[in-house]
Amino acid sequence: MSVQYGYLAFHLVFIVPPILLLGWLSVRRSGAWLDRRSLSGLAIMIVLAVVYTTPWTNVMIPEGVWWYGDGAVVARLWYTPVEEYLFFVLQPVLTALWLFQFLTVADRSLRIPMGHRIAGALAGLGISVVGWGLLETTATFYLGSILFWAGPILAIQWAFGLTYLRDVWPTVLVGVGVPTLYLWVADRVAIGLGIWEISGTHTVGYTLLGLPVEEALFFLVTNVFVVQGIVFYVWLLDRREELRALVSAPDWTPNVDPDVDRS
């Protein structure tokens, strides 16, 4: 079926305008966090998003998990439309520019309990294990692939700073929640316009006002990646003097501190 609006038009209508608005606010507002630290963190997130997501989409598309309407895409690289690669760049920019409006750094040492690091790593890996099991069934394939794919990144992030998330949870919650809700709406509109379609065979059949739960989960976890990644990055840079002291110490043990708050 030929569609009236293409994937590029989707970017121009739904993604570019809020980026421009948030970018303008980031420059104009004195309280916005826009400096070399935040921008370098965003650059890292963009590179990681492209590198990590590209192989995954190029498995999902030929598997028939989703496809695009006739004439909806300009060209493809491998199996993935060039507009999809563009989205790998634009989504982190959108989410990060929103986060920059209220980003803060909590005063917490990089020394966090080893038990917290282990718990974070196991939680992320546990998500991957659940995803691996769901890959065995066609109806849960998309759901399983998202969980299997997301788990390693969550394991790394949570092993690094699970304790710190407790200190900045309002920032993370708002940073993830608002762009996720917005992208849910935009995705639902795109599906309704036929720009892309989601397989009924590879999904469990539950929806949020017409949006497959798998699509909702995808935008949730990818925004979690971006927000947590930037939050941890600026925290690390804020504590760089402590990091230098720790690394240069001859008896450095990175996760053990008898005086650390283990609550």
TrEMBL record:
One of its GO terms (molecular function) is intramolecular lyase activity. The keyword Membrane applies. Keywords: Carotenoid biosynthesis, Isomerase, Membrane, Transmembrane, Transmembrane helix. Pathway: Carotenoid biosynthesis. Pfam families: Lycopene_cyc. It is a multi-pass membrane protein. One of its GO terms (biological process) is carotenoid biosynthetic process. It comes from the Archaea. Residues 20-96, 141-226 form the Lycopene cyclase domain. GO terms for cellular component: membrane. It is found in: Membrane. The chain crosses the membrane at residues 6-27, 39-57, 85-106, 118-135, 141-165, 172-196, 216-236. This is Lycopene cyclase domain protein.
